[in-house]
Amino acid sequence: LEYNAKLGKGKQPAEGVPILLGITKASLQTRSFISAASFQETTRVLTQAAVEGKKDTLVGLKENVIVGRLIPAGTGAGMNRLRVTANSRDAALKAAWKKQQDALAAAGQREAEPVADAVGSEEKMKAAMAAMAAAAPASDIEDAGEE
């Protein structure tokens, strides 16, 4: 009502009419044609989906159960999506690195694959940590202990 009062001249107020759909019509109003086809009017729903070239993204619980996939609730589906994204990103990075290596090989050069610095033994690690501690100002070490 406030929105309608704020309307400028020449504008029409918003109007709406509530519609009470029966369970059959409500189930057919879903975005997923697989979910809609599972309820009633299966042949009509599937024929319409085929004619219109619809694609079902299998987002909801019902269509995933029908197809026999894991349901996207409490199954780690979110983490799996992140894992797939990370794997595709890693594959793209490896492909770019391979392409760069091929270009360097064609030019007669070869760059070594990046390798993380590894500490060979526990003694070397302790020595490296002691060297870092000696190089750091005393105030930094005291501040780090307070966090």
Q: Quote the beta fraction.
A: under 5%
Task: Return the domain count.
Answer: 2
Estimated radius of gyration:
31 Å
Indicate the mean pLDDT.
75
Q: Based on Cα principal axes, name the global outline.
A: elongated
Low-confidence stretches: 139-147
Care to describe what's here?
The protein has 147 residues and is mainly α. It has helices spanning 2-5, 23-28, 33-37, 42-52, 61-67, 77-106, 122-135, 138-146. It has 2 domains: 2-67, DNA polymerase, domain 1 (Orthogonal Bundle), CATH 1.10.150; 76-113, no CATH class. Mean pLDDT is 75; it is low at 139-147.
Secondary structure elements and their pairing?
Blueprint: H1 2-5, H2 23-28, H3 33-37, H4 42-52, H5 61-67, H6 77-106, H7 122-135, H8 138-146
Q: Quick gist of this model?
A:
The protein is mainly alpha-helical. It contains 8 helices and no strands.
For this entry, give a set of tags:
0% strand; 2 domains; 147 residues; DNA polymerase, domain 1
